[in-house]
Design goal:
Layout: H1 2-22, H2 30-45, E1 53-59, E2 66-76, E3 79-83, H3 91-98, E4 102-106, E5 110-117, H4 124-133, H5 149-155, E6 161-166
Antiparallel strand pairs: 1-2, 1-4, 2-3, 3-6, 4-5, 5-6
Length: 168
């Protein structure tokens, strides 16, 4: 059993290293862009993906053109949230802020939404929940998904979280 755990840990570490390499400059490289395109199409159609896998559409802050990317909407305490796995400098975070939080979520249809940024002091339990349901994000976080809430509080200001509300 010990050998299986060690082997599993080594495989996980290798996969995490590959995932970090795909986003080595804090932005998706060529391989990540292709995989994101596939996921975006898959999530929008709702095919072979969990219910929390969605496509986010937001106006680009420079061009105004629609930018679409795959995201994971995490549920916590009766609300849904989007979390930036790459931190505050992620392109979609900048675009959402520039758009005043207006965006569209796609999954078997479209839903106009308002994304409101959550204060850093309220993010820790949402971040922990996010890592529980978004395995692809785990390599980008400096702590384990099973870490105590206090560890998440220490990094909460580094990872923007947006509450999803229906657009009015």
């Amino acid at each position: 059993m010990d050998l299986a755990n060690t082997l599993g840990r080594k495989i996980s570490q290798r996969l995490y290293a590959i995932k970090r390499w795909m986003y080595r400059d804090g932005r998706p490289g060529a391989v990540a862009r292709v995989l994101n395109w596939i996921s975006r199409v898959q999530y929008s159609a709702g095919l072979l993906s969990p219910h929390y896998a969605l496509t986010l559409e937001v106006a680009g802050r420079r061009t105004g053109r629609a930018v679409m990317l795959p995201v994971v909407a995490v549920e916590y305490d009766g609300s849904r949230y989007l979390v930036s796995m790459l931190g505050p400098d992620a392109n979609w975070v900048r675009n959402v802020r520039a758009a005043g939080g207006r965006a569209v979520l796609h999954r078997r249809g479209s839903e106009a939404v308002q994304l409101d940024e959550v204060a850093p002091e309220a993010r820790a339990p949402i971040l922990r929940r996010y890592l529980a349901v978004a395995p692809g994000a785990r390599p980008h976080y400096p702590i384990d998904r099973h870490a105590p809430l206090g560890e998440f509080e220490k990094i909460a200001d580094q990872y923007p979280v947006f509450r999803i509300d229906r657009a009015v």
